[in-house]
Amino acid sequence: MVTPSGPVLLTDRKLAAGSLISVVARAVRGGAAWVILRERDLPYEQRRALAIAIQDLLPPGRLIVAGPDPLGADAVHLAEADPLPTAEVSLVGRSRHGAPELSIEDYVTLSPIYSTSTKPGYGPPLGPSRAAALAGEVPWLALGGIDSPERAAACAEAGAHGIAVLGAIMRAADPERTTRMLASAFAGAGGKRLGGSA
């Protein structure tokens, strides 16, 4: 089982600076190797069509669908209150805001790491160190307010497997450049952390 890592893009067509597929494609070119398809308000057929279109942009198995229905993909990401999927999938994540309690989940997102303009007033921010302490041995993605190389690096240094990014990429005038900047900072800091622990 491969755990999501590096920049993980969360979709929001209402915030996207351009068509959702175009923004996703540019982010993938910039280094987003995973995408979590949200858009849970859309009718099933429209959401399924988006899932198929995004799958075509990614390596196999790298589309994660928010909610218990994988829409034909092989991975889901559940909200705290979502039931477990009934379909067989190879990867299950769950959103958490405190210490993770897992059943079959393979990873969690912990949020908000920083204050976020996407969900103003949502918090209080955990910060990378507290998130790492809450996660313990559970693989985790940092989510919330990761909009600069410094913040991406701080999450890597704290031990995050990846950074889940929505607003900074969806709203970007140049999603490819923004993703590349965050990816580079995260990878550089993660390499230093791993190198320093040897």
From TrEMBL:
Domain Thiamine phosphate synthase/TenI: 9-169
Listed name of the protein: Thiamine-phosphate synthase
Keyword Membrane: no
Keyword Protein biosynthesis part of the UniProt annotation: no
Signal peptide boundaries: none
Cellular component annotations (GO), alphabetically ordered: cytoplasm
Keywords: Thiamine biosynthesis
Sample GO molecular function, one term: thiamine-phosphate diphosphorylase activity
SUPFAM superfamilies in UniProt: Thiamin phosphate synthase
Gene: thiE_1
Lineage start: Bacteria, Bacillati, Actinomycetota, Actinomycetes, Micromonosporales
Domain of life: Bacteria
GO BP, sorted A to Z: thiamine biosynthetic process
UniProt function note: Condenses 4-methyl-5-(beta-hydroxyethyl)thiazole monophosphate (THZ-P) and 2-methyl-4-amino-5-hydroxymethyl pyrimidine pyrophosphate (HMP-PP) to form thiamine monophosphate (TMP).
Pathway(s) it belongs to: Cofactor biosynthesis; thiamine diphosphate biosynthesis
